[in-house]
């Protein structure tokens, strides 16, 4: 049956008002157009819905049931359109965010909290992992965008927006001779048993590059995939390490200290990574707006971390 929403709305208005004249005013339609819509509905259904005379409009038994069904369909339609409107306004739906563990645990929680307070019907799904996994999730469509380091400044199909700069610091056991200094050079750090983060980590890529720039061949005395494990090894006095400032809150408290690393000064740059050929869902756009609001606010980043203004 080719029944339209317009026909159902016209019929429901007449049935409730028991008057074509009153219903036409309510629907902002001419009475002739309203009568035609109701007649088309009756013709499609193959039955009379209304008994009419010059003064009265009464529902037939079929008309009573038709009104119940029409109200149900129109109510569902209005609710669906309202839900679609909230989705398009970024007030419903989901955001899938791929990210490194350190921004997931330290940088993003206050942003997510503020976002959820404003948009409680939007679910935030955090896909934390290493750099390669984060970028692959954006490229493959599993994530709307990512917060990650990027080894190559230009990547096909992806757009990079600078987010924060994250300074590398030496991580030393308490009482270590280098802990007495206000800052430590990479060459000095390379002369100690070095505890490295796993080879798949962006931290490892940057520490290897820093040692090479300093002219030091630092062979790891041990390595672990998890920065918390490396921190525990440092606290146990088994060696020294280097980590960006945003990572330190992930390391359990213990007998270790941190000192700025120099010669060279090394920063890890985190970007918002976006797909170039895929439109962001409204909720994801709203989340990025919330993130930009934090950038422009007085929100204090952890020591050693700063907003990246580019270049």
UniProtKB/TrEMBL annotation:
GO terms for cellular component: cytosol. The keyword Transcription applies. CDD domains: PBP2_LTTR_like_4 (cd08440). InterPro entries: HTH-type_LysR_regulators, LysR_HTH_N, LysR_subst-bd, WH-like_DNA-bd_sf, WH_DNA-bd_sf. GO terms for molecular function: DNA binding; DNA-binding transcription factor activity. The keyword Transmembrane does not apply. PANTHER family: HTH-TYPE TRANSCRIPTIONAL REGULATOR YBHD (PTHR30419), NITROGEN ASSIMILATION TRANSCRIPTIONAL ACTIVATOR-RELATED (PTHR30419:SF8). Belongs to the LysR transcriptional regulatory family. This is LysR family transcriptional regulator. It comes from Streptomyces ferrugineus.
């Amino acid at each position: 049956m080719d029944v339209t929403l317009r026909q159902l709305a016209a019929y429901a208005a007449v049935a409730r008002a028991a008057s074509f004249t009153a219903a036409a005013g309510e629907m902002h339609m001419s009475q002739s157009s309203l009568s035609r819509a109701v007649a088309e509905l009756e013709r499609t259904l193959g039955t009379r819905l209304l008994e009419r005379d010059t003064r009265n409009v009464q529902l037939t038994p079929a008309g009573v049931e038709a009104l119940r069904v029409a109200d149900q369909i129109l109510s569902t339609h209005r609710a669906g359109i309202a839900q679609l409107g909230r989705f398009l306004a970024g007030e419903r739906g989901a955001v899938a965010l791929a990210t490194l563990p350190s921004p997931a645990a330290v940088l993003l929680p206050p942003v997510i909290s503020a976002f959820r307070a404003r948009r409680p019907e939007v679910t935030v799904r955090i896909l934390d992992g290493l750099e390669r996994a984060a970028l692959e999730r954006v490229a493959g469509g599993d994530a709307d965008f990512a917060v990650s380091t990027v080894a190559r400044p230009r990547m096909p199909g992806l757009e990079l927006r600078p987010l924060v700069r994250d300074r590398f610091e030496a991580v030393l056991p308490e009482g270590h001779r280098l802990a007495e200094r206000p800052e430590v050079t990479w060459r000095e750090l390379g002369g100690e048993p070095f505890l490295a983060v796993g080879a798949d980590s962006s931290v490892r890529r940057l520490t290897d590059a820093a040692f090479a720039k300093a002219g030091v061949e630092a062979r790891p005395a041990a390595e672990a995939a998890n920065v918390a494990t490396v921190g525990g090894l440092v606290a146990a006095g088994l060696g020294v390490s280097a980590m960006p400032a945003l990572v330190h809150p992930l390391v359990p408290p213990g007998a270790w200290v941190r000192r700025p690393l120099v010669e060279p000064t090394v920063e890890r740059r985190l970007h918002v990574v976006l797909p170039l050929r895929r439109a962001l869902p409204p909720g994801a756009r709203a989340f990025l707006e919330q993130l930009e609001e934090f950038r422009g606010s007085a929100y204090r980043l952890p020591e050693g971390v700063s907003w990246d203004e580019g270049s």
